[in-house]
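Minutes, structural biology subgroup

Action item carried over from last meeting: produce the structure token record for Chaperone protein DnaJ (Rhodovulum euryhalinum). EB confirmed the sequence was re-checked against the source entry. Recorded below for completeness.
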Amino acid sequence: MAKRDFYEVLGVARGASADEIKKAYRKKAKELHPDRNSDNPNAEAQFKEVNAAYEALKDPDKKAAYDRFGHAAFEGGMGGGPRPGGPGFGGGGDFASAFSNVFDDLFGDFMGGGPGGRQRATRGSDLRYNLRIKLEDAYRGLQKTINVPGSVACDICSGTGAAGGAEPATCPTCSGMGKVRAQQGFFTVERTCPTCGGMGQIIKNPCKACGGAGRVEKDRALSVNIPPGVETGTRIRLAGEGEAGLRGGPPGDLYIFIEVADHPIFERDGVTLFCRVPVSLTTAALGGEIEVPTIDGGRSRVKVPEGSQSGKQMRLRGKGIPALRGGGHGDLLIELAVETPVNLTARQKELLREFEELSEENNPEGSSFFRKVKSFWEGMKS
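Output recorded by EB:
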């Protein structure tokens, strides 16, 4: 029986691109898989035919030979390449061998198959360091030395993991692939090579200092520059200061997460600071000046207007936190808290009662509130 044209088998034109051929092959392979066609006795043969066609057309050299000579290119001396149905195509062998090729093409990208899927030198892990600082440090910035536990490249073997500068050898179990395959029925299962741990290489004479890992545990002292304006949650990245890579791989990064501690005097909201300052009853009533602290360690005098109430805010411009990436400073908001005197003497109480009798018209907020209350009660009665 004459062999069908490979392009016809895949359902593509002769001028189809490599991507079009691959896409058509995947579609056909799924459609004709015997597991999906248990009622079709020809499914396995058709599946092998599709596999053979793709094996010929996916390779540029084989495709060029087939375009010129047809099926004769793979038979009897016309190029010496594998023929459909022969060992090179997996068509003449068992069905599992054919399906192994399908598995590679359909799932190789996800499983990391093929020589490009292995990693001989592995990048080191990233590290996280939590740093707690004062609000004053967040205001002015800080240069701080921190101790970071982790791994560094082994000095003895220069990070290669091999003693005496020897080169790692190709793993004999996986032939450098880093993965091994086991046949289970129709399926080929791919696993990490147990001999080399997926590295693709083994070290016959490992370095005694690091045991062949290429890195050793060691604490490091790092100087960190904390810029002005940082706040809780700010993340600072130090490239290359994380864990050392495995067998000469690149190091990871170190991420410093900032936490700004609460302050006993100031509260912060972005670049704005708040400070609640108590004032005496007489100062609030008569007016005057108070002295307030600022985050830079200085002090400022603030004028309290006559008749100030609790909660009144006054703004000191430029006395807040600097913006992290420039743009000036925020403001400091002073909030007045009018204090009620306690532990009064008899004379003080007498004076306050006398003051109360003379102050009926001196409490505008209270008078306004009780007028509203009176109106509310009258409304409820009606």
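Discussion: The mean pLDDT is 81.
Next step: EB to file the record with the rest of the batch.
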